[in-house]
């Protein structure tokens, strides 16, 4: 008796009296039952027992895919024992089962790669150096290799033979996977140069992106804009085109205020003696005026008789005094960073007035707090302008040109 005949179900005495076709059907049913029982036992008994001892959440998916290999192996070896089964059918079933085993292994490895990425994302450095793009590349290579092996198993050909035929398709593959290759190179550059992280606030006006990065994948980077819409950016475009990353601002701990007050140039003048005494009562400019007046008095004393003409003298201006007040006001503000640049300067006069620019940094980067600090500063400065005999410039509107009705006094 040969090994093949010893495996045949003819060894069962009760089956030897059945016709060949019934014997084959019964053997197939018995094989299917054994495979089903093995599948049930592995997934509902052994798998549950194993899962209780594995703390990883994604391990269940890996084990479930590997469990499918058990019934496949039973079918692969059991099909040889089915009597009266044509050799062609047996070979086809064996090839399909072999291809299925390769597929189950590939899915399990793919799930393991996804699990590895999930575990890595819990680490602190994951935000700085994400590996999701690399995982996706490995999956692409894995699935391409699995596809070649599956085709080879179904055709009963060597995988090397199929790979040799891919050489002629290299140009086609380069064209098909052009975006993937570009995205892979871009992902490597973004990661190695630390150009982008999940959570970064970026601006890319050409693609209408202005918000926080929520996902960095191989082909795309997702940005959730401040209006809660999501912009999807091809990864390679972040290398080819420019964008603004606000991470440096967030890490510095301060956010810049750069805004100008437009002052009416017609109200810029020298202060009178009474006005100087009045403004000197303001605590923030008291010391400044004392120093300035001493400096001016020493300067004018050197002029001699020429000092009798006011045009030859140095005098205190209202805008210069106000500029000194703004500097001291910002320095005294606890919500303005003291270790960063703080400048109050005049810009070139324009048709819209004389810009007095405030350039400083808040002591916080929180958006809501930043806007509140900025608004409080300019609320105060606009309100205190009359104390320095200044006024803000504003283009006249229609009501500014209206005259009262002489008959009834109405406008």
Short description:
This protein is an alpha+beta fold and 411 residues long. Helices cover 52% and strands 11% of the residues. It has helices at residues 3-7, 20-51, 59-67, 69-78, 87-121, 132-155, 159-166, 170-176, 178-192, 237-240, 247-252, 273-280, 283-301, 318-332, 367-384; strands spanning 201-204, 209-216, 220-225, 230-234, 244-245, 256-263, 343-346, 354-361.
Word description of this protein:
The protein is of the alpha+beta class and about 400 residues long. Helices cover about 50% and strands about 10% of the residues. The protein contains 15 helices and 8 strands. Strands 4-3-2-1-5 form a 5-stranded antiparallel sheet, with no helix packed on it. A 3-stranded antiparallel sheet has the order 6-8-7, covered by helices on one side. A hairpin with a 3-residue loop joins β2 (about 210-215) and β3 (about 220-225). The longest helix has about 35 residues, at about 85-120.
Topology at a glance:
Layout: H1 3-7, H2 20-51, H3 59-67, H4 69-78, H5 87-121, H6 132-155, H7 159-166, H8 170-176, H9 178-192, E1 201-204, E2 209-216, E3 220-225, E4 230-234, H10 237-240, E5 244-245, H11 247-252, E6 256-263, H12 273-280, H13 283-301, H14 318-332, E7 343-346, E8 354-361, H15 367-384
Antiparallel strand pairs: 1-2, 1-5, 2-3, 3-4, 6-8, 7-8
